[in-house]
């Protein structure tokens, strides 16, 4: 069993990275507040909001972190799929 786990370790690591990045993306998107383009249903009908400079900068930073984490999720999932396919092909050839 440890040998099988060792062969699938890269896929498991990439999947774990994707899960952690998805959680970071969700938390950062929630922290972005009114600057979060996805959660338009969670705020009032108008697009205007009042914030101090530090609040606006923290919301902007959170929006950038959410976007970056989303990219990491996509890349990690695609890499996990590719690694799993390559490993499967190697096992069937051997």
For the structure shown, list the relevant keywords.
rod-shaped; 3 helices; mainly alpha; 94 residues
Question: What's the short version?
Answer:
With 94 residues, the chain is an all-alpha fold. It has helices at residues 2-7, 9-31, 53-93. Helices cover 74% and strands 0% of the residues.
Describe the protein.
By secondary structure, this protein is mostly helical. The chain has 3 helices and no strands. The protein has helices spanning 2-7, 9-31, 53-93. The mean pLDDT is 85.
| Total beta strands | 0
Order of helices and strands: HHH
What oligomeric assembly is this protein in? single chain
Helix percent band: over 70%
Structural class: mainly alpha
Task: Count helical runs.
Answer: 3
* Gyration radius, in Å: 19 Å
Give the overall average pLDDT. Answer: 85
The end-to-end distance, rounded to whole angstroms, is 19 Å
Could you say which overall geometry the principal axes of the C-alpha atoms support?
rod-shaped
How large a portion of the residues is in β-strands, by DSSP E? under 5%
The residue ranges in which pLDDT falls below 50 over 5 or more consecutive positions are none
Largest beta sheet, briefly?
none
């Amino acid at each position: 069993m440890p040998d099988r786990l060792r062969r699938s370790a890269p896929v498991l690591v990439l999947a774990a990275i994707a899960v952690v990045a998805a959680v970071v993306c969700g938390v950062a998107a929630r922290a972005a507040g009114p600057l979060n383009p996805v959660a338009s249903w969670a705020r009032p009908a108008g697009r205007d909001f009042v914030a101090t400079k530090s609040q606006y900068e923290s919301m902007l930073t959170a929006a950038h972190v959410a976007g970056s984490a989303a990219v990491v999720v996509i890349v990690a999932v695609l890499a996990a799929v590719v690694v799993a396919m390559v490993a499967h092909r190697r096992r069937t050839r051997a």
